[in-house]
Automatic annotation (TrEMBL):
InterPro entries: Peptidase_C69 (IPR005322). PANTHER family: SECERNIN, SECERNIN-3. Pfam families: Peptidase_C69. GO terms for molecular function: cysteine-type exopeptidase activity; dipeptidase activity. It comes from Sphaeramia orbicularis. This is Secernin 3. One of its GO terms (biological process) is proteolysis. Residues 324-343 are annotated as: Disordered.
Amino acid sequence: MHPSSCDTFVALPPSTEGQRIIFGKNSDRPCDEVQEVVYFPARDYSEGEKVECTYIEIEQVAHTYAVVLSRPAWLWGAEMGANEHQVCIGNEAVWGRESADDEEALLGMDLVRLGLERADTAEKAVDVIAELLQKYGQGGSCMEDECGFTYHNSFLISDRKEAWVLETSAKHWAAERVEGGYRNISNQYSITTKIDKEHPGMREYARSKGWWNGKSQFNFTTVYSHMTTARIEASGSRFCEGKMLLEKSNGRITAETMMDILRDKDSGINMEGMFMTTGSMVSVIPVDAALPAVHYFTATPDPERSVFKPFIFVANIGQLKETSSPNYGADDPVKKKPRFQSKPDRKHNLFVKHEVVSAVIETHKERGKKITQSMRQVEKEKMTQMEMVLSEGVEDPDLWVDLFPKSVQEEMDTYSKN
C-alpha cells in the first residue's frame, strides 16, 4: 500500500449561491479504518489541567468550544470538523524537504481538534495551531500500525467571512488568507508568494539550509517542498482536478456541488482501493451570523454509497451513539507501549450496517441501484428541510437536538427496507 490522502475545498462568495461559504473534505485513509462522527460540548477547566492527545499530554485552556468531529476511531484528534462558532478545519498530509520522521508529538489531526476547540475565528485557529506547533511540535505515526506512516500537515480553515490555508514543515509554517472565490488543498504545498502570516524564522531557516538565496522572491512551495516524488505527482493530479471541478461551477457552488465533487471517482478525489475515502464532510455556513450553519457528515466510507446527514449546533446535544465507536480506555493498544500490538474492533453501529449494504451494492446491480436511490432520497429530503433552516433560522432549538441521530436512524431504516 502506497499511502496518499485527502482533498479539502472551500468556496466563498461570489463563487457560491446565496451568500454562503461551502466547505468540504474527503478523508482518505486505510480501507479497514473506521471513521466516527462525535460531538463534544463546550467545557470550562481549572487552572493547571492537562489534556491527553493521541500521544502526548499538553496544557488545557480555560474554556473549549463545542465541536463536531469526523475522526479515525483510534485517535484523539480529527480529520475534519466544525465548532459552535462555525469555524471548519480539514488537514492534509504533506511531504517536503524536512524529514517527517519525528518523535511522538502532536498529530496534525490533534491540531485540527485543538484549533476547533480553542478558536472562534479562522484566523485565531491559525494562531492557535502555530503556537502549539512551536511549543510541542508535530510527529508520530498517523496510522494504527507500526509501519511508521508520518507526515507534516497543511490545513484549510474557514469561518463566516474568510478562509485560511496554513502549511507547515516541522515547526515552520506559512499562511495565506482567502477572502473570496474558491480554494482547495491536497497532499502538496500550495502557498507560493502570497504569504499573509508566517513563522518569524521561516525564511532565515531556509536560507541557512541553502534552499533559498535570500535575494529572489520567496516562494514557500518552491523553497520547502520536494518537487519530484510519486506522492507529489499523485496529489498534483487530484489538486488540479479539484480546482477544475470548482471552476466548472464557479458562481453557483452549493452544498450539492461540493457533495458531487467529493463523490467524483474519475478525478481520484473519491479514492478507492487499499487507501480510500473513509469519511466525508460538507458544511454550509451563511455569511449572516444570525443564521445557523449546517454540517453534513457521512460517518461511512465512499460518499457515492453514503448519505450526507445534517448536524446543527444547538444546546443540549447528547452523544452521537450510532456513529461513536467502542471506547477501550487505558486498555486500548494505542495507549500501551509498544503501541499497535493489536487492533480492537472499532466499528460503530452505522458502520456495521453500512458495510453489509455496501457489499450488496457491489454484488447485486439492480438491488444495489434501488438501495442507492433510496439513500439519495433520504439525503435530498434532509437537504430540503435544511434549506428552510438556512434561510429562516431556528425558532425552537429543541427540535434540532437529535437531528443527526434521527438522520442516521432514517438511513439505517432505508437499509432495512431494502
